[in-house]
Amino acid sequence: MATLARRIKQVSKLQLRSSELICVRYRSNSRWSKNDQPTGSSVGNTLSREVRKSCAWQFYSTLAQSVEERIVVPQMGDSITEGTLEKFLKFPGDKIQVDEVVALIETDKVTLDVRSTNSGQIRELKVSEGESVVVGQEIMSYVPCLVDDIVKKPRPESNADDDDHVNISVVVPTMGDSVSEGVIVALSSKPGKHVKKDELIAQIETDKVTIDVRSPDDGLFVKYTVQEGEAVCAGDMIAQILPESGISEVQIKGEVSSESSSSISVPSTSTLKSSQSESRGESRVKMSRLRMRVSERLKSAQNTYAMLTTFNEIDMTNVINMRKRYKDQFQAKYGDKLGFMSTFVAASARALREEKSVNAVIENDEIVFKNFVDISVAVSSPKGLVVPVLRSADKMTFAQIEFEISRYAKKANDGTLSIDEMTGGTFTISNGGTFGSLSGTPIINPPQSAILGMHSIVHRPICIGPQNLIVARPMMNVALTYDHRLIDGREAVSFLRIIKKNVEDPLRMLTEL
């Protein structure tokens, strides 16, 4: 803050020099010639009141430009250097607080928040939504709060010839002696709409009364600068209107369309035709960065690995009975539901300890054996499947596994999973049974060497006991896809049989037998 104050002081001294006043605009946009510049103490006597106001405005404006700060793309992880600017949450004129989220960046693994480093007011957006950005790139600028407090002085009024293209600001009216702020509860206009003087623009709710905000003049509605639910104070600008006298085809295109094109819907010829008759057609949606990255990795896995899949079936009777018996007590004690995933994670961790090649990877001409068991669990999110990692899964209890899976599921749904939480797994489990899958061959998640696919539980007739009695049992098909370059068939089959043995008799894991 001290550095900022010094910069303001330097700019102030620079702007107050009379030799710098040549930039002041006087009504008809004429400029003083070099010889006509007022000097020294004659400045105050020479300039009219209007010109002095204009000079002050120029000073404050230049001051803001001189001390504006940048917001840049933050570090996104060791292996990620670029992403896509998915969405701006703040726009020019919006106020921001320290550490407030101002934009979202989508990478091939996760959506990242871009946060402000200081409080102030957004000045300019440097990139567009959907544009690729790299670490350290400037995406927007803002005026810190110390300067923002100065720059809030109103721009001087000028004649119609000079400002016939300037938008009218719609501001929050005085709300009463004891009321200082309210909340926007309704926005009743839209960009591109012709509004009349005193037409309702918005409604503000205070702790005492609801206040109508009306248009100060006839004109074309340009945009809102606030959102419903936002707190505002008396004098805050909430919208802009292009005055009736300034409306022309050029200005409508330049001032309304450029700022609000995303909000104005103009029916196209194809849209009108499709509404008249049901014609066959197609729609195109750009792939998200996450989807593109998933596609690249899956194709790379197919091209790189010698993938082979082995199958087995598991009798889920004992697991289901255990869950029925203890699920209420489990949830009462730990706060999480007892599901099937904890059983399969624990069984897989045991198998990974016994069949070490499944927990290994190929790097160049070497086989790297992992001395830890970090299991990735596929979780559904609004943007697709993500794979957060359970660290040291072989040392976790059922309660710890269920807690972590529940926590990851919530974060995946909210889009708040971090990159660290989704990297470093040594093995993956994907439960296609939640979507009704009966069987399938999962694709390995690089750089891992194997993946387990779980499927639906279906009652099927099987033979049990020494007398081969035919009974209906709840059965699940499981599939292990593995890299045959590293894992032999015997090891893969043995790995799957270890999982089968432990899931069919879960007391083995609980008693560590």
From TrEMBL:
Per the record, the pathway is: Amino-acid degradation; L-lysine degradation via saccharopine pathway; glutaryl-CoA from L-lysine: step 6/6
- Which CDD domains does its entry note? lipoyl_domain
> One matching Pfam family, short form?
2-oxoacid_dh
Required co-factor(s) are: (R)-lipoate
Keyword Glycoprotein among UniProt keywords: no
Spell out the residue ranges making up region: Disordered. 258-287
Low complexity composition bias: residue spans: 258-278
Query: Which example biological process does GO assign this protein?
Result: tricarboxylic acid cycle
Signal peptide per UniProt:
none
Give the family this protein belongs to, as stated in its UniProt record: Belongs to the 2-oxoacid dehydrogenase family.
The protein here is known as dihydrolipoyllysine-residue succinyltransferase
